[in-house]
Structures are given as structure tokens and as C-alpha cells.
Amino acid sequence: MTKLNYGLVCDYASFSEGGKLNILGIFKNINAVSIPFTHPQLFIVVNISVEKEGKYKEMIKLVRKKDNVEIMKPLEFDLFPKSISEKKIELGVVGQMTNIKFEKSGEYVFKIFLNNDFLGEVPFYITEIK
């Protein structure tokens, strides 16, 4: 069974030489002094379980939830997972985005797809502080 194990929005993420995932500054809210505003950098971290080895295409869309408007061009990844045990195959992706312009406050989501099948959403919120 293919499933989204987790998705996190954070300030920075990387994989170390040994394959360890490093995540800094996980968040669900961005406070903006004024709207519209441009966020300098954020990362989306996604982990998916799949049933078998092979070739997979992952796509991540950033969407304003209220009206389903796509904020940027989708991130796309070609993945070739190898089995880490007889029972578990996981796909891990770290996507970096820079200078994303947010026109409105409200809820935004990263929509996660694998081979065009929708797996789930990772929400976060833009709030204008005055």
C-alpha cells in the first residue's frame, strides 16, 4: 500500500553523507508584516512508503487552499527506491523553494502526488500581523 508517512514544512533540510535526514525549524505558520510578501526560503520534506522497487514520479504542488490557485510551478522528482528491508520501501524527498510570493493570507497546502495519485496534503498558514 502506498501512503504518505509525513510531510513537514521547515526552514532548512538536508541529507548527511550517511543518509541521515536533518531538519531545522519545522513550522505551520508564517507571520508577514504586510501582504503580499515574498518568503526568502522554505523546504518541504516528504516521506512515502511504497510496496515495491521501481521508478516513481513524485510531484508536489503549492496551492492556496481557499481557491485552489497554484502558487508556483510544481516540484517534480524521479525516484528509484531500493528496498531497505523485506517489508519496507520508503521514498524521501527534500524540496527547496526560494522567493515565493504570497498574494493573500490564509491556508496554503503542499499537495503530494505519486505517479499522479493524490496521497495527501501538508498545510501551513500565512498571517498578516499589524
Q: SSE layout and pairings?
A:
Layout (H helix, E strand, L loop, with lengths): L2 E13 L5 E6 L2 E4 L4 E14 L5 E9 L4 E2 L4 E5 L9 E14 L3 E9 L2 E12 L2
Parallel strand pairs: 3-10
Antiparallel strand pairs: 1-2, 1-4, 4-8, 5-6, 5-7, 5-9, 9-10
In short:
The protein has strands at residues 3-15, 21-26, 29-32, 37-50, 56-64, 69-70, 75-79, 89-102, 106-114, 117-128. With 130 residues, the protein is mostly beta strands.
- Spatial shape: globular
Alpha carbon gyration radius: 16 Å
First-residue to last-residue Cα separation? 46 Å
Kindly report the oligomeric state of this protein: single chain
Helix percent reads under 10%
Number of helices: 0
- CATH architecture identity: Sandwich
Described by strand count, sense and barrel closure, the largest sheet is: 6 strands, mixed
- CATH evolutionary superfamily: Macroglobulin (MG2) domain
Order of helices and strands: EEEEEEEEEE
CATH class: Mainly Beta
Number of domains: 1
Low-confidence stretches: none
Structural class: mainly beta
Q: What value does the average pLDDT take?
A: 92
Number of strands: 10
CATH topology name, in short, is: Immunoglobulin-like
Strand portion: over 45%
Molecular structure report:
This protein is mostly beta strands and 130 residues long. The protein has one domain (3-128): Sandwich (Immunoglobulin-like). Helix content is 0%, strand content 68%. It has no helices and ten strands. Strands 3, 5, 6, 7, 9 and 10 form a six-stranded mixed β-sheet that branches. A four-stranded antiparallel β-sheet has the order 2-1-4-8, with no helix packed on it. Strand 5 and strand 6 form a beta hairpin. It is globular, with a radius of gyration of 16 Å.
